[in-house]
Amino acid sequence: MNAFQQFFFDLSEEHPRWNFIFFYDPVQTERVLSGLWMTIQLSVVCVILSVLIGLVGAWLQGAHSRLVRAVVQGYIQFFRNTPPLIQLLFFYFALGQFTPTYSPDGWLEVPIISNVGWAIISLSFFAGAFNVEIFRAGIEAVPESTREAAESLGMNRLQAFIYVVFPLAFRVSLPALNNNLVNLVKTTTQALAIAVPELLYQMVSIYNDYSTAQNACMVVLFVVYIGLVGILVTGMNAWERAARVPGYGQ
């Protein structure tokens, strides 16, 4: 053991209730690192997909078709008015029964969408529903005269949205978007319910195997999520300052 590992090993011997076993046992260290990496991957993918869903949904809310607008509104109401954990379980256990499977060895049937895939789908659609409304509010904050000016230059509706309306609306939406994405990162812990091996799952597994590690696991979880959320908030705040447009937002 090196000095770092020896310190935590001695701490566990002297104070058994504070057993940071993952700091001196390589096997447990690997479990924590793999859980942290899964949490980061899950967070990054869900953040990106939820933002894309929000953008597309906000644009479709202005469609001429009443059916399209009704479908988007139905999607928003479904995901905003049901708990994310229930959505996660519904996607995995209910819809998962209807997904095709494949057999890599001729015996075992493996679904084409894994538990990680269902977690990404469920969490992205959950946060995306809120992002649709966030971007819609930003779009409505852009004066109608701005849209008309873009159209008078020969732009069609899509071009005006991409090059004129959205850049201004995005700036207005950033503060609310920041809050929603922070909530999304914290909500990824619910993937534990369908056995996604993210950080919380691994920590629970560790203190189930080593009951003296429970306090240590909870402390590390707390610190890690403060760090992850802090990084996201710092990045979003820097982006907000860089994207500042006089007259739109702060």
Put the structure in a nutshell.
The protein is an all-alpha fold. The protein has one domain: MetI-like fold (Orthogonal Bundle), CATH 1.10.3720.10.
Describe this structure in words.
72% of the residues lie in helices and 2% in strands. The chain is an all-alpha fold and 250 residues long. Strands 1-2 form a two-stranded antiparallel sheet.
Defining key terms:
single chain, 250 residues, mainly alpha, MetI-like fold, two-stranded antiparallel sheet, 9 helices, 2 strands, 2% strand
Low-confidence parts, pLDDT < 50 over ≥5 residues? none
Computed over alpha carbons, the radius of gyration is 23 Å
Question: CATH fold name, please?
Answer: MetI-like fold
- Text of the CATH class: Mainly Alpha
Number of strands: 2
Any idea what the CATH architecture is? Orthogonal Bundle
**Number of distinct helices:** 9
Helical fraction equals over 70%
Distance between the termini: 53 Å
What global shape is seen? Answer: globular
Mind sketching the topology for me?
Blueprint: H1 3-14, H2 26-60, H3 66-80, H4 84-94, E1 101-102, E2 110-111, H5 115-140, H6 144-152, H7 157-187, H8 199-209, H9 214-242
